[in-house]
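Check this.
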Amino acid sequence: MIRIGIIGFGYWGPNLVRNFSLVDGCSIKIVSDLRKDRLDLLKRQYPGVATVNLSDNVINNKNIDAVVVATPVSSHFDLASAALSHGKHVLIEKPMATSVAEAKMLIDLAKKQKKILMVDHTFLYAGAVQKIKSLIDKNELGNINYFDSTRINLGLFQKDVNVLWDLAPHDISIFSYLFNKNPLSVQAIGVSHLKNGIEDVAYLTLRYRSDLIAHFNCSWSSPIKIRMMLIGGDKKMIVYNDMEPTEKVKVYDSGYILKTDEDKRKILVDYRVGDIFIPKVEIREALFEMAKDFIKSINAGSDPISNGALGLKVVKILEMSQKSIKQHGREIPFK
């Protein structure tokens, strides 16, 4: 039985507590939060779970095997490194850290301590993303030409990170999981309408050695909430709309073929519009599957799907995007 301590019972903490309490093979023993009202709420919902104010009381607890960090990103490194140093397995909320240097140090420390280090990129475990992964791995789409994601809504404005650091980790992690390629370059532009230096609207572009291009549109300033991805292959194309209650994934048997012509100045394109296929997607809570993967990885001593290496790649892209934004959209080579 894996004994779990959770640090942070704010926005995401209650979801983590609820899901880990349902996973076989683990037990939530203690939760910390600085706010008394949050701990009072926890006690009413889970009277068998101990509560403490200080995170040190979780990290230093010898009866805890694994620590879950659900706090603002600025505190991730200090809490995760302390937990690893005390011999705990660690699950961190996204993004993994505030810099590549911090992420690398956490990976090295986890390796040294022989502990599991995992990042909560929840959407990797969604039935829709797993179905898309299966279709791509089976080459149903052919060569992938583009990936276009939109994740926009009105609020919640963050105080410590910009909109890309807040929203883009979801889609960058999905893209990295689906394709497992490093880009040639990262380019981003953004605007801070509150004039506080924290961009609330931003656009990120990743370029690859092939003709693949990935684009991410993120905003806290949209009147409507959109969670949509378009994936274009030369055989078929996918629309993934996470706001759809049931038909989240649609596969379009559509495309185009460039035809040759004696006059090279003419461009002849033959378009193909075929059927739309709606595959069956397993309905399950992604966060529950993520929690199961964490416990499974601890017991097996194996890498989880959302491992430290993937978390590092997401942070690296975010760090480079921030550099590009501050240099007015300069294209930054990925190294």
Notes: Residues 308-326 form the longest helix (19 residues). The CA atoms of residues 122 and 183 lie 23 Å apart. The mean pLDDT is 95.
